[in-house]
Every structure is written in C-alpha cells, then in structure tokens.
Amino acid sequence: MFFVTVIPGPSNPKKLNVYLQPLIDELKNLWQVGVDTWNISKKTNFRLRAALMWIISDFPTYGMLSGWGTTRKLACPYCMENSKAFSLSHGRKTSFFDCYRQFLASNHAFRRDKKSFYKGRVERSLPPPGLTGEEIFNRV
What we know:
Blueprint: H1 17-32, E1 35-39, E2 44-48, H2 59-66, E3 86-87, E4 94-95, H3 109-112, H4 133-139
Antiparallel strand pairs: 1-2, 3-4
C-alpha cells in the first residue's frame, strides 16, 4: 500500500509530474513485471503485481492530478459541458448554486421550491447522462 501526500499551498508546484514520476514508474513496474515475493504460509515465492485503485483528494488536488480544470464553468467532472454553472455579474466568479437539484429524485420537494433557490425556478431537468468507458477514453 502506498500513501502519497500532495499538499498544494499558495505556491503549489505547476509541474506535478516531477514529484509523481517515481511513484508512477514503480506502479508501472509492479503492474507490468511484478516482483518476486515470499509467501510465509506456503513457504514459496510468487509474483506480486499491484494496481492503483483509488485516489482520495480534495477538488484542487483532483484537478492537479487529473489535468481536469476545476475552476470556471466546466469544473464539474460529471456535468462537463452540460454544467448549469453561471458567472456572477459583479464578481465574475463562477457559481454552482442550485446545480445539484437536477440530481435529486423527480418528486423531491426541493425541485419544486421556487422560493429558496435560483430565480424562482422549478427544476425539471434530469442529470447529465453517464458516460461509458469508451466515451471517457475518447475524451482523454
């Protein structure tokens, strides 16, 4: 098990691959070649292989690791170009306020709540469609 910590700060590295390349090389070797390992219970060697299964990170680090822009309108990796984010008129910042209501069940009370959400709107749209593995691969 590898534990890698990347803690971006005010002067975070722009080229993260310099720091992650040793880990990537090690993982590629463990996947493609493997390493001989001793099994103490069977008293024999076996070929150990490893794969990266999960990355747990906050949203800015997710953007650094994946190369996906996590700012502006296309920040949501699920919605992508179907994002309902909008720019605030005076601050020019992107707001994702109210974008989540499309993911609620169609009969959820928040979908019909005109008073508490964006511009008195009732949310009728469905969430963006999920992508197949091939569609994701084609985008990369």
